Amino acid sequence: MTQPIDFFWFIPTSGDGAYLGSSDLNRAPSYDYLSQVAVAVDRLGYTGVLLPTGAGCEESFVMAAALAPVTRRLKFLVAIRPGVASPAYYARLSSTLDRVSNGRLLLNIVVGGNPAELKGDGVFLPHDQRYGHAEEFFDVFEDLLATGSANLDGEHIKAIGATLGYPPVQSPRPPLYFGGSSDAGIDFAAGRVDKYLTWGEPPAQVAEKIDRVRAAAREEGREVSFGIRLHFIVRETEEEAWAAADRLISKLDDETIAAAAKHFNKESDSVGQKRMFALHQGSRDRLEVSPNLWAGVGLVRAGAGTALVGSPESVAARLREYQEIGIDTVIGSGYPHLEESYRVAELLFPALGIERGEQAGGFLNEFGQKRVFAGGSHGGNLRAAS
Question: Domain named Luciferase-like: which ranges (predicted)?
């Protein structure tokens, strides 16, 4: 029997909303709201959460440290961007956060992105050279976490007598996750990371990418596991799900789509972003790019731009197709993230064989009597008909 997929969720640290490309029903990324999402996800049985990085996001390490005390089991996949700070400083951040969270830290390596934003962070290297820099960065970073000391006189990184005072809980270090579709990115993944992440492309394209990464890792004498980043629109019926997808972009105008397309094609040097854009080409004409795989999110959202849309049975079937080609982890999201975390857990988790945490089983056992919800009145619930 296939092991149930490992299911993560997303913490929307740049804000949340009910409509893409619109200012209606938006939510600011306040700590109060983000902690609501984290607490819900923790209770619902998700494995962990992804916290992104970027100029428009709340800082990922700080936010993870703030959310760790209000959660119990949740793991934190925190973005780490080489070049924004030294490897010694990131080693201290990572070691401390791993101890504060009692070993719940995972690290998501983000090498690429928008060159203009990277310049604002002090990173001026062209695309492929950023991976050479990242190799040296993680040589120092990993030595510090594993042994407490590091030295390197590299082309990009120089660390003389670097030390780390306290080790992380996880030995030799927290697991490293990474997503990158370029040749340089795949070479980096093959020699360095524990889990390779892909955005939600059609299964045949994902399979081709997995084969490339697996072969490259094998040449390095390593094995890599695989995850996928997807949005979800799950409803009780297919019709309801597709209506919700249409509603999500119902206030998105053509001018906003055109501006996003210009940004994706002219400002980003990400190969993965180009692959995402190729699925829809900035057009609403055909957004279902594979059965139940909808590219509407990518009309305006940078990065992961596809959603699985449908009933629990059809979405579970699509996820099993990804599992068959090697995917063992999903990082999901939905708009708004609080409500959709409940929908995915309540509707999709049972179809995937995932236990639903504290929400499993419905009402508390009322002395062995099965009950049905009666609206929450003072009279309590009703005994179910036998």
Answer: 6-328
- How far apart (Å, rounded) are the C-alpha atoms in residues 260 and 124? 23
pTM higher than 0.90, yes or no? yes
Range of the domain at 125: 6-361
CA dihedral 305, 263, 19, 253 (to 10 degrees): -120
Closest by Cα among 315, 157, 121 to 235 = 315
Reported residue count of the chain is 386
For residue 12, CA distances in Å to 15, 200, 335 come to: 5, 18, 10
Does 315 fall in a domain? yes
Listed residue (380, 383, 364, 361) closest to 372, CA to CA: 383
Read off the tokens for 258: 């055109």
Calpha distance 81→312 (Å, rounded):
36
Three-state secondary structure call for residue 137 = helix
pLDDT, one tens digit per residue, over 218-258 is: 999 999 999 999 999 999 999 999 999 999 999 999 999 99
